[in-house]
Amino acid sequence: MSANLLIYLDGKIVPESEAKISVFDHGLLYGDGVFEGIRIYNGRVFRLTEHLKRLYDCARAICLTIPISFEEMEKATLETVAANKLTDGYIRLVITRGVGSLGLNPYQCPKASVIIIASTIALYPQERYEKGLNLITCGTRRPNSAALSPQVKSLNYLNNIMAKIECLQAGCDEGIMLNDQGLVAECTGDNLFIVKNGKVSTPPISSGALDGITRRAVIEILADMGIPCAEVPMTRFDIYTADECFLTGTAAEVIAAVQYDRRLIGDGTPGKLTNDLIVRFKALANSTGTPVPYS
Ligand code: PXG
């Protein structure tokens, strides 16, 4: 990690070495809190409003009061990026429940903490963007929404981390997580799309897929190309027999998947539409977004 980052912590921008939180913070003790990951492209923050809306919705869903307004959060995010003079990078917003006692009760935590980190991220090596990813099915399932809604980007990502460990131990790059009914939900930190006979589809949110912002952007790009995207329940069979498969996420962007459960997807190389979407997504990301107010 770069050593001299400037971090926003509860209203102040401080050097990384001073950006510390208490061991009694329930974000640490219980994973009680929410987060967002946002990209900066070419001096602009991509889909900032959409990301902040999701953050505030997730906080609301877990009865967490974010101590600053939406507008203040927007300003703080842009100021943190400007302070670090980043024109391309990654922003991590973290809201923790705050300092409390050694008990679950979140009402013992008087004030949530707000952390904004502006840095960089590289999820997969460049070679993977050219050749595509190798996927497996993870044994770890997406939680049922009657447990913790899979829409909450909470600070407890253990479910996804367990799934990621399975992929890595199997020598694969990523894994597909099924829901409790055995339907395809998504990957460990990315949404999933397939192309078959020129038709594009992606699992619906009701299957346990996160309502990803990159997913939404890709559906919009497809619509602009005159290609509808069906949000329909999907099984492993649909992926085994697809012509193309790709993943979307803020960190991963758009990336092809070329192998799944040791079967080749299509001819085992990134598909034509996938490559086209990679280019179109880059163009969109580099030409839109909220400008960063560098001084
Ligand atoms: N599914 C899950 C479970 C996610 O956490 C996505 C899909 C993609 O959503 P967006 O809105 O980003 O298009 C996410 C978000 C990582 C990492 O390091 C990944 C995410 C967030 C933070 C870190 O892999 N993905």
Write the layout of secondary structure elements.
Layout (H helix, E strand, L loop, with lengths): L5 E4 L2 E4 L10 H5 L2 E9 L2 E2 L2 H14 L8 H14 L5 E8 L16 E7 L6 H6 L1 E5 L20 H12 L4 E5 L5 E4 L3 E6 L2 E4 L10 H12 L4 E3 L4 H5 L3 E6 L3 E8 L2 E2 L7 H16 L2 E2 L4
Parallel strand pairs: 7-8, 7-14, 11-12
Antiparallel strand pairs: 1-2, 1-6, 3-4, 3-5, 4-16, 5-6, 8-9, 10-11, 10-13, 13-14, 14-15
The structure holds 3-[O-phosphonopyridoxyl]--amino-benzoic acid.
3-[O-phosphonopyridoxyl]--amino-benzoic acid binds next to α6 and β13.
Describe this structure in words.
The chain is α+β, with helices and mostly antiparallel strands and 295 residues long. 28% of the residues lie in helices and 27% in strands. It is built from eight helices and 16 strands. The strands form two sheets. Strands 7, 8, 9, 10, 11, 12, 13, 14 and 15 form a nine-stranded mixed β-sheet that branches. β8 and β9 (184-187) form a beta hairpin. The mean pLDDT is 97. It binds 3-[O-phosphonopyridoxyl]--amino-benzoic acid.
Oligomeric form: single chain
CATH top level of the largest domain is Alpha Beta
Q: Beta-strand level of the residues, as a percent range? A: 25-35%
Ions and ligands = 3-[O-phosphonopyridoxyl]--amino-benzoic acid
